[in-house]
Every structure is written in C-alpha cells, then in structure tokens.
Amino acid sequence: MRGLASLVQVLLLLLAAVAGYEHYRLPEVIEPQHYELSVLTHLEDAAELRFEGLVRISLRILEPTKNITLHAKNLSIAQQDIRLSDKDNAYAISRVQIIDKYDYFIMHLANVVPSGEDYELSIPFSGELNSNTTGYYWSSYNDTVTNETRYLAVTQFSPTFARLAFPCFDEPALKATFQVKLGLHKSFTGISNTPLIECKLHEQLIDYNWCTYEPLLRTSTYLVGYAVHNLSSTGVQYSKNSLRTRFSSWLQPQLTKEAQFLINFAPQALSYLENLLQYDFPLRKVDQLVVPTHKFTAMENWGMTTFNQARMLHNDAEQPLQEKQSKASTVAHEYAHQWFGNLVTMHWWSDLWLKEGPSTYFAYLTLDALMPAWKFGEYTIAKQLQHFFKRDALNETRAIWREVAQPAEILEQFGDYVYEKGALTMRMLHKLLGEQQFFKGIRAYIAQNVYKSVGQAELWRIMQESSDLGVDLTEIMNSWTLQHGYPLVTVTRDYATGSVSINQTRFWLQPAEYESSNCWWIPLSFVLQSRPQFEQTQAQLWLKCPQAALLDISLPQRALPTEWLLLNPQVSSIYRVNYDANNWRLLIKALKSSANFGGIHALNRAQLMDDLFALAATNAQSYELAFSLLEYLPRERELLPWSTVLALLESLQQLLPVEQSTQFKHFMQQLLTPLLARCHKLNDAALSQLSSQQLELHRLAYAQACRYGLAACQEQTQLVSANDELMQLPVELRGVVYCSLIEQGNELQFEQLLQRFQQSSQVGQQRLWASALGCSRNHTQLLQFLDYLLQASKATTSSCYLQAVTSALRHQYAAVPATNHILQHALELDNKFSPAQIKQLLLSTIGNLHSEADKATLQQQLKGIKKFEQPLQLALETRAVHQDWLLQRSENMLQALAKYI
Ligand SMILES: *[C@@H]1O[C@H](CO)[C@@H](O)[C@H](O)[C@H]1NC(C)=O
Ligand SMILES: *[C@@H]1O[C@H](CO)[C@@H](O)[C@H](O)[C@H]1NC(C)=O
Ligand SMILES: *[C@@H]1O[C@H](CO)[C@@H](O)[C@H](O)[C@H]1NC(C)=O
Ligand SMILES: *[C@@H]1O[C@H](CO)[C@@H](O)[C@H](O)[C@H]1NC(C)=O
Ligand SMILES: *[C@@H]1O[C@H](CO)[C@@H](O)[C@H](O)[C@H]1NC(C)=O
Ligand SMILES: *[C@@H]1O[C@H](CO)[C@@H](O)[C@H](O)[C@H]1NC(C)=O
Ligand SMILES: *[C@@H]1O[C@H](CO)[C@@H](O)[C@H](O)[C@H]1NC(C)=O
Ligand SMILES: *[C@@H]1O[C@H](CO)[C@@H](O)[C@H](O)[C@H]1NC(C)=O
Ligand SMILES: [Zn+2]
C-alpha cells in the first residue's frame, strides 16, 4: 500500500508541475492579516544604493494547501532563510518556484499545511534601489548650500510595484495591517505612513538607527509608503478635521516659496472633504514629500503623499493661474483618495475608475467650494466633455471598466479615459440623483465599506438604496461603464400635436464602417423656452436599453410649436443630441435674439455648437445650419462657449490643406475681430484686475487672433514689446505676446530670446520661452532649437521640447517641419517622455500626413518604438476619419463658410 501511495503522490506532483498555476490572481486560500516590515536602506555609497529587509506576515490559511504563492520581483531571497510556522510547528519549504509572467514567488511546502489562523511567514530579502521610479527607488538632487549631490530613497507602489520592494500579496483586495521599521544612517530622516514611535541604535552598524512607526490601519499594499532622505521639513500645519491632523511637507529648502501653495492648500482640502463625506479621516499625521523624480504627478499613499517636484511647484510670477488651478486640483484629488481608494478600495484594477472617477470629480467640488472665484469645476467639465465626445466617437476606445490581468495592462488602465469618463460618470450620477440623494448615497457607500474592498456593483446598490429612483440603477450605470462610446439621441417634434419621438444610436465619426447595436439607459430631461429651468437635471423619462424608440410621446409640459425644446440641461449626461431642423432654428433664433440667450445655460450653449459641428461632420446636418448657429457669437461674453467653439474651429482648420485654408482664415478673422475689440488693450492696467475666467478669455482671444494673423492683434503685441512692458502683463498673456513677436521678428530677436532661455534656471519661465521660440517662421532656426532641446543634458531643459514642438505644430507654417522632426527623433522621444505625452505628440502630427505614402512611412518609422506603436492604431483611425472628412464634407463646409466672407 505504501508503495502505491507514494506512486500516487509522485504522479500528483508531476501533474501539478505540468499544469502549474496559470492564473494572474493569487490562489484564494491564503489571506495576509498583518505585515511587520523591516527595511535597512544604504545610501552612503552612490555606487551601491541598496536595501535589505525582513518581512514577517501573519497569515490565515483558509484551506489546506501545499504551497504559499505571493508576489516578489527582482528581489534576492534565499530559500533556506524562509520560515513558516504556527504556534506549535515549523513547516519546511521544499522548493521555490518563480513565475515571471505573473511576478509569482511560490514556496512549495514539504507537507500539506492545514487551514488555520495563526501562521507566520518570515522572508529575508535584499535588492538594489530601483533607478526608474518604481518600487523602492532612489532619486537625487544638488544641495545648494554644500554643492553636494544628495541621494534619497522613496517608494512608489501603485499599482503593482510593492512586489519590487518586499515579498507580499500584492493585490488591492488583500488588505492587512502594516508595521514598518526603517533602518537608516543617523544623518537621514525616515518617514512612513504613520507617526514615529522611537529610534534605537542599530545592534551592529555604527551610526545606524532602527526607527519604528505606529501600525497602519488595514490597507492594501499599493498604499504603503516609506522614505529615507535629507529633505527639510517646512510649514507644519494642522488641518481643521476632527483629529487635527498634522501636515508636514518635506522638500529642498530653497523650494519652500514655490511649495507654499501646496503646503497651505492640502490641509484645507482634507478638512473640506471630511466635512462633505462625513467620515472622519483616521490618521493623526500626513507627510507630504516633494520628490525630484516621480513616476506620476502625485501619489496618495495613506498618510504619506508624494508629489512630483517639477509638476507641483508653483511660481505665481512666472506660471499662469491655469497651471496653479490644475495643481490644486491634483492636491484635492490625492486627498479625495483618502476616502475613495484608501478607506474604500476597489476590489481589483478593473474597477480602477471607482477610485479615480470620484477622486477627480470630488477634486472639482473641492476647488469650487474653496476657490469659488476660479469657477474651475464647470470650465474643466466643459473641456473634458469636448475631449470625451471627440475621442469616444472612434472605434479605438475602451470601456472604463475593463478586464485586466498583466501588470502592463493594469498600468494602462491609468489612462485619461478612466479619469475623465470616470469623473463625467460621477457627475452624471450627481445630476441624476440630485444634491441630497447623491450625498446621502455617497456617505453611506463610504461608511458601510471602510477598510473593505468593493466593486462598482456596491456603489450602484447603495446609491439605489439611498434614492427614490424607480428604475434599476445597476442596469442603467452598467450601460455607461461596461461599454465604450456614447449615444446620439435624436429628437423629432410633431408641431401639430406637441408630441416628440426619440431614438438612440451610437455616435460614430465614421458611421458607414462601424455599425453597432449598442444601447444605453438614457435619462431624458427637457427644457422648454417658456420654462427655462436648467437646474432641473433629474430624469423625466427614460430611453431604455434595449428599446427601439419612444414614438409620439407627450411631454410632462406640452411644447408650443413656436418655442424651442432642449434636451439634457447642463449636459449632465454624456450624450449628444440632434433635433429636427425646425427646432434647431428655434434654438438658434433664441440665441441670436433673446435676452440672456433665452436662459440657455453656458454649458449647453457650448454643447449645441459642439454637437451641431459633429453632426455636420457626419452629414447628419448641414454646415449651413452649423455656421448659422455661430451667428450668435458676437453676443457671447462667457468663456465656456468661446473656449469650446475656438477649439473646435481650430481642429477644423488643422484638417484643411494649405490651399484651402485662406477662406477659413478670413472667416476666423471676421469672427475674432469683434471679440478682440471688446478685450482690454494689452497696455491697459485693467488687465490685471480681470477674473480668472475673463483673463482666460482674453488669452484665447489674443492667441487665436494673432494665430490667424489679425493685424489688430499684432499691433497690440508690438505695443508691449519692450521688456518692462512685457513684464507688466499678466503672465497668461506674456506667452501670446512672445509668440507673436517671435513670429513677426527676425533672426536677432530669436537669438536674444534664445539666450535668455539658456540663461534662465526658472522652469516656468523656460517653458514659456520655449513655447514662444516654437513660433518661429524660420525653419532652420526652429529645427536647430528643437535639436538643441533634445540634446540638452538637463532634464528640465530637454523637456521644453514638448512646449516648443507643440507651438510649432499649431502654426501652419511650421507644422510640417515639426512633424518631421518628431518622426525622425521618435526613438529619442520614446526614451524621454511618458506614454501620454507621446500619444499627444503623435495625434498632433497626424493631421499633417495626408498621402498614403506618408502613412506607410509613418508605420515604417515607428516600428518597434513602444510608446509610439501603442497609440498608432488610434492615430491611424483618426487619420482615416480626417481623410474621409476631406473627401466627403470639406466642400460643404467651405461652401457654407463662403457666405460669411
Ligand atoms: C498552490 O496552492 C493552490 C491552492 O491550494 C493551488 O490552487 C495552486 O495550484 C498551487 N500552486 C502550484 C504552483 O502548485
Ligand atoms: C534587478 O536587480 C538587479 C540587482 O539587484 C539589477 O542589477 C537589475 O538591473 C534589476 N533589474 C531590473 C529590471 O530592474
Ligand atoms: C523599472 O524597473 C522594474 C524592475 O526593476 C521593471 O519591472 C519595470 O519594467 C521598469 N520600468 C520601466 C519603465 O523601465
Ligand atoms: C548637480 O550638479 C552637477 C554639477 O554641478 C551636475 O552635473 C548634475 O547634473 C547636478 N545634478 C542634479 C540632480 O541637478
Ligand atoms: C558648485 O559647483 C559648481 C560646479 O561644479 C561650481 O561652479 C560652483 O562654484 C560651486 N559652488 C559652491 C558654492 O561651491
Ligand atoms: C474596432 O475595434 C475592435 C476591437 O478594438 C477591432 O476588433 C475591430 O477590428 C475594429 N474595427 C475596425 C473597423 O477597425
Ligand atoms: C431616429 O430618428 C430619426 C428621425 O426620425 C431617423 O432619421 C433615424 O433613422 C432614427 N434612427 C434610428 C437608429 O432609429
Ligand atoms: C534663418 O535662420 C538661419 C539660422 O539662424 C539664418 O542663417 C537664416 O539667414 C535665416 N533665414 C531667414 C530667411 O531669415
Ligand atoms: Zn488618482
């Protein structure tokens, strides 16, 4: 019997070895409860930046098992030093197996281990500090006092990099408590998620300490953080939240002034959010670490947020207010994560939007509450809507909820589509449920799920419970989060009966090629001219899914044949609307002649233009109708509609070949002349008193007017061309003036500005000048400058390539050489810039590649260059849409436009 038994065992072993464990999720038989993590960091020798550590994990084993599988990547671990024990026994490890594909580290046990509570697994490990901003990585800076290079070590664990720093169960749902102990030379400071308890001398290493931090509440591995550094602590502040959380900010001392905004704003954002969400922030301290290098803009580690120095510091005198606003929004976003993500965590990375969407949206709410004069939320929503509607009209898009497995796929989830559509989806929920029910639901969602992990279904469940919605919220919201794209809703009125017919279809920019049967649950709320209530955003009716159409339905309020009807007030839901031609004319008439535009909300005024131009591009309406809508613009005073229409006209212009663009230019000059005439002159002191919205409108007006060569604009810029006059201008307008001066100027003026660029050490200033130098009409000069930037050894200088080349791409006279420069240097750019930056560059070049030969060259040149290849399909699809438009629609557009010039 015995012999037989062992034969069976051998067979089983063989089977296991052959079958292996081929799944990207860890086996569900083990749960970590608590980690005790000790890490000793060596920073004293720049040639040997490394760490060694010991992790002791308390485990619960749910089912008898013969292996322990966890994550570890690029760590040295000696099998003989690993220990597994419970109170009574030690369990021998027979073999260690590594599966690179999933970063698995598998410890096969000599015998089956029974299920139980009190196991302890202890693993010593060591590794080199990473140089590429992931895991436990090193960074450096020059100490301005001693002139020495300083090294520091800091963690970036999100999404899947904790496994590079210590062996762990690196999945967000496997939450545990953590206690960190850092070993470090006494000349350094150590910080972690929680307050320091004490430091003791290292038992052997001279001048080294062991510092122990308080245990951290149950959390996911990606939120753990620690750092060893010589940065200075500055501006300690206490937040007004219930625990009076102590905020310390760590940075190079000479940067204090530029970090002041971050230092002041963070505790305010935290206490505002605590009030709004009505769940107390549970930590007594927060350390904010401003690091010289960072994989992202910022990271929300619990109690230890990290910020990218280059992207977060701010200098009011040199950088536009818009940049400050977006930095403030990042700060608020990170602190919103303390609830959305840190307290309530998504179960798996497929649900990433569940932390990024709400954090992005709640950051807008925070800014609107704390900085009301900025009106940041609405303006940002308007820009995001325009971006979303354009991008999600292509085939190359994804649902925000998406199956993800490999680390590379997980990282890809952090694309703007998840943040942006995630935020728009949260806003939709807010507008749909109304103020009271939305916050009731959100608060319940947090209170009921703290220290747990959830999927989006849980959010829908609780929001449903908290509302009196008569429809199934899960079904509704799944139709928006589980599929890509968005619907076009078509409204046809029967003017005799007052009834309407409504149907939906997916909106494609290229309708012929892709048919789809997608449908959405669409909330319908109507506004009538006689009752222009744009605050009423709750659904009056639903267009269901599937449902072919609503035919001849009567509205809650009957529409008179002479009044306009509008669907989707405030664009609270993310769909486009088409109306019958008569209703469009009624809307246009009101915009052109009614006082206050008939009460039509600024977001809708912007959206009407965006929709109608998209409909004209796809031949669902005519360009005659679209341009007649623009006739109302001379009356428009607000930023939102102008910024939308100027962006959409600029992208139209960029589609036109040079030969056809003269007419367009004349049209734009006519459109911009009255707008510019209403703006303050550039030497008018009143400019510095403008609200941030009006200042942005001035910037847009001047930038576009100069770009289209309006003499009135160029005269203005000449007026302030002397340096001290220029420095009097609000910084927002300085860039426009520099660009126009360089465009009109000669070689000498270029050289002068170039010199100032080279001598400046202020990043904000450098970006502004790089952007201006990119406006040069002299190709030789431009290309020399681009080469110079790419070759610059200083990272802040070479990153100005983006500003310079983007400027050039926006000017017809420089777009082709700039495009060629990008494609010829693709390999270098691939090394220097992030995937998002490369994607943006590629998409901006695509409009300049018209011929089939260009397309072939493009594919050839970019072969094997990773960050370019990834968005290549999207770029090619965009290009195909452009080509199609040129063939099918550009003539109609030019004819319609001809009437106005
Ligand atoms: C480890 O154990 C789990 C659960 O018992 C099992 O599903 C998995 O296949 C094992 N892994 C290997 C590589 O044998
Ligand atoms: C892995 O670590 C070794 C030394 O610990 C290092 O030389 C190597 O560059 C690391 N590999 C990667 C991909 O970071
Ligand atoms: C950074 O290094 C880690 C391993 O050390 C590796 O897994 C990762 O792919 C690297 N990332 C980049 C962007 O090179
Ligand atoms: C520090 O200064 C040295 C010499 O002045 C320079 O070569 C190096 O690039 C600087 N390092 C950083 C991180 O700025
Ligand atoms: C710092 O180093 C740079 C270049 O290595 C040198 O030009 C400068 O004089 C040094 N400054 C001080 C204060 O030592
Ligand atoms: C649209 O995208 C899907 C998957 O992303 C792809 O399989 C399909 O071929 C695309 N359709 C066209 C016409 O390119
Ligand atoms: C929707 O209604 C419009 C107007 O009646 C019609 O032209 C269109 O074909 C309909 N679309 C669908 C998908 O039924
Ligand atoms: C363009 O710039 C180059 C290099 O500075 C210069 O040699 C050339 O004369 C300039 N061309 C014109 C037309 O100004
Ligand atoms: Zn985030």
From TrEMBL:
Homology family: Belongs to the peptidase M1 family.
Keywords for this protein: Aminopeptidase, Cell membrane, Glycoprotein, GPI-anchor, Hydrolase, Lipoprotein, Membrane, Metal-binding, Metalloprotease, Protease, Signal, Zinc
Domain of life, source organism: Eukaryota
Positions annotated to bind Zn(2+): 333, 337, 356
Ranges for domain Peptidase M1 membrane alanine aminopeptidase: 263-480
Domain Aminopeptidase N-like N-terminal: 32-223
A GO CC annotation given for this chain: cytoplasm
Stretch forming the signal peptide: 1-20
Pfam annotation, one family: ERAP1_C
Record bears the keyword Cytoplasm: no
Protein name: Aminopeptidase
Site (Transition state stabilizer): 419
The keyword Transcription appears for this protein: no
Lineage of producing organism: Eukaryota, Metazoa, Ecdysozoa, Arthropoda, Hexapoda
Localization per Swiss-Prot or TrEMBL: Cell membrane
Enzyme kind, highest EC tier: hydrolase
Gene source species: Drosophila busckii
Topology in the lipid bilayer: Lipid-anchor; GPI-anchor
Catalytic residues of the enzyme: 334 (proton acceptor)
Domain ERAP1-like C-terminal per the UniProt entry, residue ranges: 564-878
GO MF entries: metalloaminopeptidase activity; peptide binding; zinc ion binding
Cofactor(s) annotated in UniProt: Zn(2+)
